[in-house]
Hints:
single chain, mainly alpha, 0% strand
Amino acid sequence: MAKKGLDTTFVHFGIRKEDMDLIEVLCTEHKLDFDWVKDDLLKEFHEKKIRNQDMDDKGIEKIIEKALLKIK
């Protein structure tokens, strides 16, 4: 029987659990810290998306650049 209710991953990031699992696998394959990707990239992306801010390629690039500056 499938679980009913909201997926907490979706609630926090707007991304389904299955997709988040795929992102985690890709992070492992590319030696990226999944927690960093989740917290610094996905969280900001989701926040902008729910505020109806334009999220074109340029906007996504800015989110990534901002996150990368934090690790330098």
